[in-house]
Amino acid sequence: MNMQVDALKQPQNQVARMLLEVKDLSVAYGKVEALSNASLCVGEGQIVTVIGPNGAGKTTLLSAIMGVLGSRGQVHFDGSLEAVPEVEVLVGRGLGLVPEKRELFASMSVADNLLLGAFQRHRRGDRSHGQTLQEVYELFPRLWERRDQLAATLSGGERQMLAVGRALMAKPKLLMLDEPSLGLAPLITREIFRIIGALRQQGVSILLVEQNARAALRVADYAYVLETGQIAMQGPARQLADDPRVIEAYLGLASKHQEMLAS
Amino acid sequence: MNFQIAMLLGQDGVTNGAIYALLALSILLVFTVTRILLIPQGEFVTYGALTMATIQAGQPTALVWLLLGLSVLDCACDLYAAARSSHGFRFPRRIPLKLGYALLMVALIKTLPLAELPMAFQVLLTLCLVVPLGPQIYRLVFQPIASASVLVLLIVSIAVHVTMVGIALLLFGPEGARTRPFSEAGLELGPVTFNSQTLWVIAVSLALIVGLFLFFERSLYGKALRAAAVNRLGARLMGISPTLAGKATFLLATFIGTLSGILIAPITTLYFDSGFVISLKGFVGAIIGGLVSYPLAALGALGVGLIEAFSMFWASTYKEIIVFTLIIPFLLWRSLASRHVEEEE
Ligand SMILES: Nc1ncnc2c1ncn2[C@@H]1O[C@H](COP(=O)(O)OP(=O)(O)OP(=O)(O)O)[C@@H](O)[C@H]1O
Ligand SMILES: [Mg+2]
Question: Is the CB–ligand 1 distance for residue A55 below 6 Å?
Answer without folding.
Answer: yes
